[in-house]
Amino acid sequence: MAIAPDAAPGLYWIRLHDAEGAAPPQPFVVGTLPEFVETESNNAPHKAQATPSSTVVANGRLAVGGDVDHFAVSLAKGQTLVASLAGHETLGSPMDAVMHVVLPAGGQLAYNHDQRGLDPEIIFTAPADGNYLVRVFGFPSTPGSSIAFAGGDRYLYRLTLTTAGFVDYAWPLAVTRDRETRVELEGWNIPESLRVITIKPEGERFEIADPQLANTAVVAVEPHDTLVESEPNEPASPQAIALPVTMTGRIGRPGDVDAFSFDGKQGQPLVFQLESRALGYPLDAVLEATDGAGKSLARVDDVTSARDPFLTFSPPADGSFRVLVSDLNRQGSSRQVYRLRARPAKPSYEVTADTHAYIATPDKPAEITLSVDRQNGFAEEIGFTVTGLPDSIAAAQVTSTASGDSAKAVKLSLTTRGGPFSGPIRIHAEANGASKLTRTATTAIPNHTARTALLWLTATAAKK
Q1: What angle do CA 160, 164, 165 make, to 5 degrees?
Q2: Residue 400, CB half-sphere, CA atoms under 13 Å: how many?
Q3: Which of 9, 16, 85, 259 counts the most CB atoms within 10 A of its CB?
Q4: What mean pLDDT is reported for the chain?
Q5: Cβ neighbours of residue 55 under 8 Å, at least 6 residues apart?
Q6: pLDDT (mean) for 151-161
Q7: How confident is the model over 380-413, as pLDDT tens digits?
Q8: Percent of the chain surpassing pLDDT 90
Q9: Following CA atoms 227, 232, 236, 237 in sequence, which dihedral angle do they give, to the nearest 10 degrees?
Q10: pLDDT tens digits, one per residue of 13-66
Q11: Could you give the 3-state DSSP secondary structure of residue 15?
Q12: Residue (of 192, 288, 177) closest to 224 by Cα position
C-alpha cells in the first residue's frame, strides 16, 4: 500500500473485494509521525523494544492470551510524554487495554485504564533523565468468566508516544459554516504558534492537522449559529440562547451545572442532543428541562446503550424554559467537555440498509431491506434511487408509503442481466411530498460504531 505524500491525515475506511464478494470496511489511519511495528518478544521489562525516538507511533498486537508489550522511551528531565493508545474505539479491537509507565528495574510511575472510552492515555512528566518503559496489556472488551490478560489476532492497537504537540480537543467543538472562527487547541506540548488558529470551514466537519502535531482534531461544522458557554451560567443565572444553536460547554469543576434559557411554544417540540462520550471525553452527562422557576419537566441520562443523552421536550405552554447540563456523578474537570445541539423537532426520517454488501446472480436478485425511521410525525411518501449501477443491473421501483407496513420498511430488488460487476453503490431517498427531504441510506460497519453510506454490490456473470 502506498500513501500519497499529500494525503490528509485522519481515519480512512478500506474494503477488500473480489469477483465473489466484499469484506466489511476496515479502519486505516494516516498519521503525522514516523511509525514502526512492534516485534516480539517484548513481554518482559528487560526485553522492552526501544523506540526510534520519543515521537513515534507503535503498531502493535497483543497476539496471544497473557501477552504484555513493553516499549522503552528515552526522556530528559521535565519532558512531558503523551502515551495515547487507539484500539477499541478507533480500530474496533475487542480489547479493554491497560497502560503503565514503569522504570526499567520495576516500579510503577503512572497508570491508566479507560481515558478515551476503553482506550488508555497517560500524560507523564519525566522526573529525571533516563529510559522509561510504557507497558501495554489488555482484557476482553466484552467481559468473560475469567480474569486474565487476553490476546488474539484482532487485538490490534496504535500507540502514539510523543513529546511533541498532542491535541486533546479544539475549543469550540463546533463552528458555523463559512464563518471565520478563532479556535483554541487544548492539549499538551502545543506550540505557541498553534494554540489559537482561525478557520473558515465548509462541509460538515473540519479536521485540524499540522506537522507539529502528533494527532488531528475534528471540529463539527454547523449550518446554524454556534456559541461557547459563558460562566457564570448556573440555574439561577442561565445563559440565554436562541434555537437552533450548537453550544460548546465544559463541566469544569465538581458539582458544576450549566444552564441555558430559551423560549418555547406549546405544541412545538424541541430536541436537545449532547455529545461527549461519543467524542472520547469522560462526561457522563445528564440533560434536564425546567420551567422558568426551576421546576423539573423532563430529565434523561443514558439513551439505550449510549452514555450521551438525547432529549425531546414539548413545552407545556408558551414561555421561557431552561435546559441544564450536569455530570451524573457530580464530577468535573477540564476534559468534561460537551457539544449540545438544540433545535426545533421538525418532521424528518432516516433510512438504514440491513447490511454492508450484497450479491446478485442472474437467477437471484440482490434484495436490500431498507428500514425507515419516521421522526416527529413525518408522513410523506418516500421514493428511492440507486446510484453507481452499471447498465446491466436494474433497480426495481419501490415506495415507502405514509402509512402501512411499507411506511417502516421496504425491500429493494437489484436484478442483473449477467454482466459481472463489483463496486460501491449508494441508495438515495427523497420525499414525494412538500418537504422534498432527501436522505442517503447508511448501515453499521461490523465491529465498529461508525456507519457508511457506501454499500457494496457484487454481480456474477451468467454461467456458461
Answers
A1: 90
A2: 28
A3: 85
A4: 94
A5: 33, 34, 161, 162, 163, 164, 214
A6: 96
A7: 999 999 999 999 999 999 999 999 999 999 999 9
A8: 89
A9: -50
A10: 999 999 999 999 999 999 989 999 999 999 999 999 999 999 999 999 999 999
A11: coil
A12: 177
User: With bands split at pLDDT 50, 70 and 90, how would you rate the model's confidence at 436?
Assistant: very high
If you search the block for the grid coordinates 470551514, which residue do you land on?
A: 201
DSSP state of 449: S
- For the chain, percent helix, then strand, then coil, each to nearest 5? 5, 50, 45
Give the burial class of 226: count Cβ atoms within 10 A of its Cβ; 0-12 exposed, 13-18 middle, 19 or more buried: buried
Dump the DSSP string for 259-276: EEEEEE-TT--EEEEEES
- Please give the model's pTM, rounded to 2 decimal places: 0.88
Which amino acid, one-letter code, is at 341?
R
Going from the C-alpha of 59 to that of each of 29, 34, 71, 366, the distances in angstroms are 11, 11, 11, 38
Contact between residue 121 and residue 112 where contact means Cβ atoms under 8 Å apart: yes
Per the listing, cell 437489484 goes with 414
Q: Is 403 helix (H, G, I), strand (E, B) or coil?
A: coil
* Pairing of the two strands 69-75 and 95-102: unpaired
Strands 245-250 and 225-228: parallel
Q: Is 91 helix (H, G, I), strand (E, B) or coil?
A: helix
Task: Say how far apart CA 289 and CA 295 lie, in whole Å.
Answer: 8
**194 and 165 Cβ atoms separated by less than 8 Å:** yes
Element (H, E) at 174: strand 174-176
pLDDT at site 239? 97
Whole-Å CA distances, 47 to 41, 43, 76, 133, 239: 7, 7, 22, 10, 56
Instruction: Please tell me whether residue 413 adopts helix, strand or coil conformation.
Output: strand
Would you give the DSSP letter of residue 422? E
Q: Is the peptide bond before 244 cis (omega within 30 degrees of 0)?
A: yes
The arithmetic mean of pLDDT across residues 67-92, rounded, is 96
User: Which helix H or strand E contains 409, and what residues bound it?
Assistant: strand 409-416
Task: Report residue 92 as a C-alpha cell.
Answer: 474496533
C-alpha cell belonging to residue 17: 473485494
Check if the beta carbon of residue 283 is closer than 8 Å to that of residue 338: yes
Residue type, 237: S
- Taking CA atoms, 77 is separated from 192, 230, 357, in Å, by 21, 38, 53
